[in-house]
Every structure is written in structure tokens, then in C-alpha cells.
Write a structure and sequence with these properties.
This protein is of the alpha+beta class. Among the domains are: 163-225, no CATH class; 233-370, Phosphorylase Kinase, domain 1 (2-Layer Sandwich), CATH 3.30.200.20; 372-504, Transferase(Phosphotransferase) domain 1 (Transferase(Phosphotransferase), domain 1), CATH 1.10.510. Helices cover 37% and strands 11% of the residues. Helix 9 (381-400) crosses helix 11 (463-471), helix 10 packs across helix 11 (463-471) and helix 10 runs antiparallel to helix 12 (480-501). Residues 1-17 have a biased composition (Low complexity). Residues 1-22, 122-160 are annotated as: Disordered.
Length: 519
Amino acid sequence: MDPVGVAAAPEAGPGPAWQSKCPWGAPNTTSISCSLADVMSEQLAKELQLEEENAAFPEVVAVAEGPFITGENTDTSSDLMLAQMLQMEFDREYDAQLRREERKINGDSKVSISFENYRKVHPYDSDSSEDEVDWQDTRHDPYRADKPTTTPRKGFIGKGKDITTKHDEVVCGRKNTARMENFAPEFQVGDGIGMDLKLSNQVFNALKQHAYSEERRSARLHEKKEHSTAEKAVDPKTRLLLYKMVNAGMLETITGCISTGKESVVFHAYGGKLVYYFATEDKVMPPECAIKVFKTTLNEFKNRDKYIKDDYRFKDRFSKLNPRKIIRMWAEKEMHNLTRMQNAGIPCPQVVILKKHILVMSFIGQDQVPAPKLKDVTLSSEDMKKAYYQILNMMQQLYKECNLIHADLSEYNMLWHDRKVWLIDVSQSVEPTHPHGLEFLFRDCRNVSQFFQKGGVVEALNERELFNAVSGLNITADNEVDFQAEIEALEKMNEDHVQNHGKKLSMFPSDGDPPIFDE
């Protein structure tokens, strides 16, 4: 094909300066003569596009340093090169984020972590600056002082006048400073090596002893916190037992604490739908339950072993060397005592289940409100008289049918609910054959007699008359001193009889049966 000529407009003649700068003026164009094949060429189209862009934007500032400007001869038309450049930019941003996380987590800590293994190592990412070096990851830390060199086995270094033995004051001082790093982490020792601190043997031994003492003290505090119940809280093991009861369906929910004492904490809970087996029959959980958690601290139980060590049911299991066992036996003893009282028809909480040191009972009260204690309720003269005769009857039942003595009976351990008295807190209750059983009974009679005499009950017996009425004994002493002397003589006689003529059985066949003696 013959080439086709492309005619251009004639050039404008010389004119005023404002005409050449007028945006609406005719553009100055030069004639380009080319063939049709050149017009259809893609390379020519690119060149024309670049010329137009350069003419339209003559002062284009280069893009700031970045991964896309890698050289003048970079071929950006390749998809592989573009993908590598984008990946390089992503890796740099990822590494920068890791360095920020390291600085945030480490802070001023002496022990730091590093994310060096998670950084993206790009083969052609050679840009690195000196401030990005993590000195924590290097084998040698230029900012850390060198540790003192060890003395060889021969015990000295150097020769002649420059000899230095292992007993040198400076060498020993630096070694003691380095040994401080072996103390517990919570014992702050500072940077003694960096300050070239020299500790004498006396100072180092004192610091070492103090560090060990603090470590043992911290361990004791932690163990006490983990293994003891606080005033209104429970330890993790007790909390786990309560969670298991809820998950098993035995309890619906635990609402909160309703009473605290020296030996236990009582919580209120709603009973679940679980049917439990008790006393050879299946029973439904009560709608409201009282959870008695015996405190696992030994301060109160160490001095109360007299209530349990002479009880024939627990005498063989009692261990003076392991007082922690007393706590579980204390809970077990209250369960057995409540079972005897329940079988005798005495108003008391109904036992549901015993789990280690946790005793679940029926709740005496209504709608999370516990029944008031006898000392906190104001009764009429008729109700006070009725309560007195009811307590007198319960004491006789407790002694004769249950073969028990409350041992801590007072207005603090009696509740008033549904116009009658309920007995609680029988963990310390003992049998009449206990070496101090009659003394405990006389103390209970004194507490009951004094309370109702102050309450205006004219028919209330004094402590000696009440003791004879409950026990069935006929002690005719004119004063309290002689009365107590005869009680002690009876206890001594009973103890000698048991030791000489028979032994008490270690266990009852079932709760509620009287003790069996060998004739």
C-alpha cells in the first residue's frame, strides 16, 4: 500500500504573547508522517500516550520511597513482578507490626520475648537499618556487663606478686553479686553486675537467708489461700464441689451466704430435681437447702478435739498428728447426730448429703429468710412457756432415745419456726458415756434455765433440777460445787467401768441405736 500523507494545519504566524498562552487558542502541532501499519502499532500508541502525559503534567514529583520503585529498568508489565512487589510491601508492614507488638509486650521488663521466628524473610528485601536490630535475640548483649570469670581448680590465678586466690575480697564480692541472680524471681536484686557491686560473704548470706524466708512465706500464704475458706468465701476445691452438685442436678442455684461462724459458713440454695437415696429410701430434694461448709482452717478445730477424740464412733480414726482429718470427721459427726435426732422425731434440719467437709441440709426458714434464733425473737408469755416445755422434752429425747448430749445448747443454737423450736449445730454433740458428757449436760441445763428464767417463765427449773429431770439421776447436793463434784465422780466411775469390764463398739450398726457394752 502506498503511504498516505497526513497534512497538518499551517503554522500560525508571529503574534502577541498572550495569544500563545491562551488556553482557548489553537494548539501547536507538528505534522507526523507515518504509514498505516505504524498507526496500528501498539508500541507507537504507548509512546504517543507518554508524550501526551509528559506534555500535560510536566512537573510530576517522583513517588516517595517504596517497594514499587526498585530501579529504572524495572519491568512493571510482568504480573509476577507486581505480585512480588506487593508481597514485599505486605511483609514489611507485617514485620513492623510484630516489632510494635514486641515493644508493647516487653516494655521495661528484664526478660523479654521475641517474634523473630514469625517474621517474613524476603529473599530480595535487603533494606535493614541498625535501629531494627533486636539485641535481646543476639548471643552477646553489648549493654550487659560480663559476669566475673571463674577461678580455676587450683584455687589461684596469676604468677608471683600478681597471684590472686579464690579468697580474694574483690573476687568473692563479685561472685556473690553474680549469685544473687539465682534468688527467686520475686526477690528484686537489681543490676549489681553492671554496677560492679562487691558483696561480702556476711551480707550475701544474710540476703540469701532473707530471700529463702520470703519464698517460704509466699508459699505458705498461697497454700493458705488455696486450702482454706475465708470469712464468706470458699477455696477452689470447695467451689469445685459446689459446682459439681449444681451440675449433677442436686442443687438448682446457690443464692448466697446466710450465716457465718467460727467453724463454718452456711449458704442458701434452691434444691434441684434429683432424687437421692437416704436411709433405705428414695427422697426428693427439699425446695430450699442449707449448705454448711466447714472451714478448712485448723485454728478453731485444734482446741476442740475433746469433743471427738473420745467418741467411740471416731476414736479409732482420730489422729492427733493429722488435725486436718478432724474437719471432715466433724462434718461426718454432725450428719450422724442429725440422723439420730431425725429418727427420734426431734425438730432439726433434714440431712441430704455429705461431701467431704460440705453438709447439705434442709433449710429452716422460707424464701431465703432463715428462721430467727431464739435469742432474737420476742415471744409472748404463752409461747415462751410452750418453748420451754418443748425444749425440756427435746433434751430428754436427745438423752434417752438418741443417746446424745448437745454439749452447746443455748438460745444461739435454737431456732423459732412454725411456732416451735428447732435444734441446730450438733456437730459437737457427744454421748453420755463421754468422759466429759455429764459436765456438758450440766452446762446445757444452766444455759437453758438461765435463759427462760430471765424470760419470765415461772415454771422453769434451776440447772440442778433440770439436770436430774433430763438425765434421770438423783443427785442430792445442796450447792453447785458439791453437785459438780458428784458429776465428776460419776464420770470417773463410768470411765473405769468401761475400761475394766467392757469396750464400746467402734461403730453403730445404724444411727440411732444406743451404745452396746460387753457384760
